[in-house]
Amino acid sequence: MNHHTTPEVPKRTARWLLWGIVVLALTLRMVWPTLAEFKRDEATVVRRALAIAYEGERPAAGVDTSMGAANLPLTLYLVALPLRMWPYPVAAVLFTGLLNGLAVWACYAFGKAYFGRTTGLIAAFLFAVSPWAVVFGRKIWVQNLPLINVGFFAALFAALVRSRPWALVGAFAGTAALIGLHMGGLAFLPILLLSICLYWREVSLRPLVIGGLVLGLAMTPYVVHDALHGWSNARDFIQYAGGEAHFSWDALRYAFVNTGSAGIHSLAGALWEVYRAGLPNLWWLNTAMMGLLAVALLYAVIQAIRGPLDRRRSLTLMLIWFAVPIALQSRPTAPVYPFYFNVLYPVQFLFIAILLTDMAAQFPLLRLPGGGLKRRSLATLLVCGMLAVWGGWQLAVIGRLFDFMVHHPSTGGYGIPLRYVRQAAADARMLATSTSDGAEIVVLSRETSPAMHETPAVFEALLFGLPHRFADGSQALPVPDAREVVYLAGPMSGSDASGLDPTDGLTGGVQLLEGMAYVRPISDVALPDGVRYRLLKRAGAERTDVLAGMERFSAFPDGVPFENGVTFMGYDLPESVTAGETLTVWLAWWVRQPPPTGVDYHFFVHLLDADGGLRAQHDGTGFPTASWRAGDLVVSRFTLSLPADLSAGRYAVWAGMYTYPDVVNVSYLDVASNPAGQRVELGEVAVGDY
């Protein structure tokens, strides 16, 4: 095909089309920002960016990668910019959507500069409506930014195609930025080096040296930080790279899948069939588009070898862009995911646009009905029709996904959207700040660590600036020594009249909390599919209601003191239980003084037979030691699974504590403050036959 005959869209028409495409791209990536995914990764980025914006932190390393090594911190500094103006995750979502919407404009500018206006417009349109590009473009945390991808290649093309040697410094700076955003940006380093080696005649020494210095200086803080911390990131990276590799087609498959909407139904989780049922059966269009990409790649290879001289170099560099990230992940040592190939955007669309534009140029012009002077080829009309059908289908897929996230927000494939956790956090914030002194917020979920677990990470970011702590509500209910406390419990499933599912692990703890005299439920943030967050508030200086109905220790009227500053205050256990069932024991304990820094304590409850033999036990801590404060009164729940063959009879229930992970028992003290033993008897329980 002779690309010199390619008809160009008139400038004025192109300008209006470009505006429409960019507005469409920005709308899809920025509309309904609270529907954005907000899981542990996104929440961690936001929380650490808030620390940069408001707490003066200047990290040299970013969040962890799936291979263990930490990323560089550029993403954190970038996200800190909008958060400095508005300290809420919505600001980060809008900012990310803006950058990814502008990437569509950059795609047009790049395509226009090297392949013409028509190619730029087609590529930009395909990029704008791609559902996977939209999904990735709305995520606070995703691998790389297509806007920087295009910037890197704009500099590389300027240096190696347009013979502007100093643009090579920009390519090195772009490489540094891409690596700084995510370790996946390392793919651009071999792209850069391979391109330089291939077209070394276009490379001048001074720009090459200065570019290398720019890249090296950008990496220096991270390298120094890693050296000061025992090269942990380098060791993790080497371990990942040196793992057992296996050939996989996943990399190539995802490169094609990310072009359209194939597999997008996976975001609906278990309800993927419901999602697909709401759309016309046009999924075959994705196969057609992937086939078109395959033809476009073959065409690009032919053109790079036999095409016009002024086009060969551009297409060769684009083929390197497409091939290198795929090749690097073709023998992975760990699972490969679609978002790894965000580094390709928007090269797939440029290849397709080049093919379509050149195809349209090869057909004879047809005079349109009416006798006017305007003429269009049959191929041009066909391409426009194809793009209209494709764009309409992709927009339907995206619209269906937005609607699905509103009505089915907890399917497991996408994660609970920001709007619901944001509302729960906002309600908790309002309750906490409505008090004269400001109440502490206790988040009750099934997890306790913001660094490792999703719910704590989410609310660590959303409750920024307010005092808050985390507890596993299925195992522990902390009652701080304060007049007012706000509790945020969830996510929980709901089914019965109270809105709670009796089989949910959090239900027992929340119901115990609601049974306390000074605690009252305030409101629920209910998701359409039954999941909910519950807000409760405790108001009262006395905490006698916490111990109401519990047995006290007769030999220790003021509780059983332990040498680590904890006092066992009371307990509750059933009189009888059947073998094969679960024995539930509640233990109330008080923190007399804060624990030593760096020491972790676990609790245990044992069921012993008449001979002292251990028949069942539960060890754990639903309230991390690092979160303890002097004056905390905590009610812990222990569930002991009894063997089905446990003989009928009476069994003793004992409790105690030990340090973790070295497992050294903590002694309790007698009235003279001397060590008196390492476990305390709570009482007896009768076990009946199974």
What tags apply to this protein structure?
690 residues, alpha+beta, 3 domains, 6-stranded mixed β-sheet, 5-stranded mixed β-sheet, 20 helices
What can you see in these coordinates?
This protein is α+β, with helices and mostly antiparallel strands and 690 residues long. The protein folds into 3 domains: 3-407, no CATH class; 418-545, no CATH class; 550-688, Coagulation Factor XIII, Chain A, domain 1 (Distorted Sandwich), CATH 2.70.50.60. The chain is built from 20 helices and 20 strands. The chain has helices at 11-30, 40-54, 74-85, 89-115, 117-129, 131-137, 146-160, 167-181, 188-198, 205-228, 232-241, 250-257, 272-277, 284-306, 309-328, 347-361, 378-407, 418-433, 454-462, 507-514; strands spanning 365-367, 375-377, 440-445, 468-472, 476-479, 484-492, 519-526, 532-539, 560-561, 566-572, 576-578, 582-591, 600-608, 614-620, 633-641, 649-660, 665-666, 668-669, 675-677, 680-688. Strands 11, 13, 14, 16, 17 and 20 form a 6-stranded mixed beta sheet that branches. Strands 4-3-6-8-7 form a 5-stranded mixed beta sheet, sandwiched between helices. A hairpin with a 7-residue loop joins strand 1 and strand 2. Helix 14 crosses helix 15 (309-328) and helix 14 (284-306) crosses helix 16 (347-361). The chain is elongated, with a radius of gyration of 31 Å. The N and C termini lie far apart (82 Å).
